[in-house]
Specification:
heterodimer; A: 158 residues; B: 418 residues; 10 helices
Chain lengths: 158, 418
């Protein structure tokens, strides 16, 4: 496995994803395009923070897509974005002389996780779209509270 | 040297990435609430599924690491190779973290391994200056597929590498102790025997070697006379290293002076112990210490260890330690070598007190270069005055760190000292 080739393929995939997002929602087009540049820079500089920033920059377009276009499409693009970001993070974490066997196995694992998540995401979002669920404000607040508690418990040292 | 230990777990903890996932989900829910629309919440599904499925790929194994250090003692500026022998009870993906207080110059401090059973890793550390450096303990880090949660275990004990003081030439330093031991050495005793210096002539006795006969004197007096030499024997030496009261100097000069002092003391200890003398040590710095005079390789190690530890500082007055320790550690008329920049007048008083009882040699590294502030010039004048006063009671070498000691001691001898 040539690491440079992997890096180039990842950047190309991210650019493709960003272009798709830009075309599908031209009002927020600059954000995904900027995200592509940041992702390329992240892999060049091996910066994990920049990878996270690249994902964050795609969020406005993904939210806008979920509101104005297909929910399934937006969710699948989110999954693709997270999958590519995970692979990018792995490459960024690996230095120039890392064990390629480790990277290959981790690539397989991340791909396995994304492959498992793909059909479930498609099914859940398709069902949600067909049921046309309306947000219950109380439920949303409860969800946020649960997540805040979860985040606080994660921050606590073991 | 190698070190191994059985692994001890440190528990599972979330990484920053796990918090980022939580933040992403929170952001999507918040945006849904703000827009009063359910659909952005649906985008949390892939993120939540990724987090959930990631834990399915978590692997754990018992990893043991054995560290083999090329050498545990080296000189400053040298590189030391370290090899890690990694063994696991089953195949696993593991990240090994090897913290080091010495800069790593070859390899890295983190190793990502697709470990089957055994692996051998290498890295190289640089020992920039004198001191102690710790390698390890090695941490074996296991994580799930996305690295959201990690579990660390300590896979090896730490190892210590020592950068010993640099050595320098000690030519020009001669001992003048009148106390000598029983073993042959390099210090002229007051007895006749085998040596190099002429002692006198005596009448020939059966058994004397013919080459020792002084033919000229024998012819003049009409009887056989033989030459006698001064017997050279070992002595006891107490090295006193003063790395205190340097606060008036800038840090770079302090470091230079202390390094010069330590280097000189280490070189003297090595040379004196090689000649069979017993060597003791008293240091004053951030931590004061003392070593009773002794000989042998282990004793040299002890002295070098204390010198490696020495750092500039002033916890206790040296004059007090000297007055208390010198009679306890050193026999009367033995050699007392004081290495001090002489910035403390109390130490001079102490030397005045000890000079009649011991053969005292003061080697004073000069911390001033004549271009300092007014305060430093005053200190320099005071130091020069102390040197002049001390020259009356003992031998004093005013030494510029970095210069040859031989030159400084010759200069002193030409000025009529010794």
């Amino acid at each position: 496995m040539n690491l440079d080739l992997v890096r180039a393929s990842l950047v190309a995939s991210w650019i493709l994803l960003s272009t798709l997002l830009s075309l599908s929602h031209p009002q927020t087009a600059p954000a995904p395009l900027l995200s592509a540049a940041i992702f390329a820079l992240a892999l060049l500089r091996r910066s994990r923070t920049l990878v996270a920033l690249a994902v964050a920059l795609q969020l406005p377009t993904l939210v806008a897509m979920s509101l104005e276009r297909s929910l399934v499409q937006a969710a699948l693009l989110t999954l693709a974005s997270l999958y590519l970001a995970e692979l990018g993070d792995l490459v960024a974490r690996a230095g120039p002389a890392r064990n390629l066997g480790y990277l290959r196995r981790k690539f397989e694992q991340v791909t396995g996780v994304a492959a498992l998540a793909l059909p479930v995401t498609a099914a859940v979002t398709a069902a949600a779209e067909s049921l046309s669920l309306v947000l219950d404000f109380g439920l949303a607040v409860l969800l946020v509270a649960i997540l805040v508690l979860l985040a606080l418990s994660l921050r606590r040292p073991p | 040297m190698s070190s191994t230990r059985s692994p001890s777990r440190r528990g599972c903890r979330p990484t920053a990435k796990a918090l980022l996932y939580v933040a992403l989900i929170l952001a999507l829910i918040t945006s849904a609430i703000l827009m009063r629309d359910f659909r952005p919440i649906a985008l949390t599904v892939p993120a939540a599924l990724m987090v959930g499925f990631s834990s399915l790929f978590t692997q754990r194994a018992s990893v043991k690491v054995s560290r083999v250090v090329e050498r545990t003692r080296a000189m400053p500026g040298e590189r030391v190779k370290v090899r890690l022998e990694v063994a696991s009870d089953k195949p696993c993906l593991v990240e090994l973290r090897e913290p080091s207080t010495a800069p790593i110059v070859g390899g890295g401090s983190t190793f990502l391994l697709n470990l089957r059973e055994r692996a051998s890793l290498e890295y190289e550390v640089l020992l920039p200056k004198r001191g102690f450096y710790q390698l390890g303990p090695t941490l074996a880090v296991f994580s799930d597929a996305l690295g959201l949660f990690v579990e660390e275990s300590v896979a090896s004990d730490p190892s210590e590498v020592v950068a010993l003081p640099k050595l320098m030439s000690t030519k020009g330093i001669k001992l003048a102790a009148s106390y000598t031991g029983v073993w042959p050495g390099e210090v002229a005793s007051r007895r006749s025997g085998r040596g190099y210096e002429f002692y006198g002539v005596r009448e020939y006795a059966p058994g004397d070697e013919l080459r020792r006969v002084n033919w000229r004197a024998s012819a003049r007096l009409g009887k056989l006379l033989v030459n006698e030499q001064v017997e050279e024997r070992v002595t006891d030496v107490l090295l006193v290293v003063d790395a205190g009261l340097l606060g008036v100097l800038d840090p770079a000069t302090v470091e230079e002076v202390v390094e010069a002092e330590v280097s000189l003391a280490a070189s003297l200890a090595l040379s004196l112990l090689r000649s069979g003398n017993r060597v003791g040590l008293v240091t004053r710095g951030r931590e004061s210490s003392w070593v009773r005079p002794g000989f042998g390789r282990r004793h040299l190690d002890r002295v070098l260890y204390e010198l490696t530890r020495l750092e500039a500082g002033e916890p206790a007055p040296l004059d007090y330690a000297l007055n208390m320790l010198a009679p306890y550690l050193l026999k009367p008329n033995a050699e007392l070598i004081v290495i001090s920049p002489l910035l403390d007048s109390n130490i001079a008083i102490s030397i005045f007190n000890l000079a009649p009882k011991y053969s005292v040699l003061v080697i004073s590294p000069n911390p001033f270069r004549g271009d300092g502030s007014a305060a430093q010039r005053i200190l320099e004048v005071e130091r020069t005055s102390l040197i002049v006063k001390l020259s009356g009671v003992c031998r004093v070498v005013d030494w510029a760190p970095g210069a040859l000691l031989l030159k400084a001691s010759r200069r002193r001898a030409l000025r009529g000292g010794w």
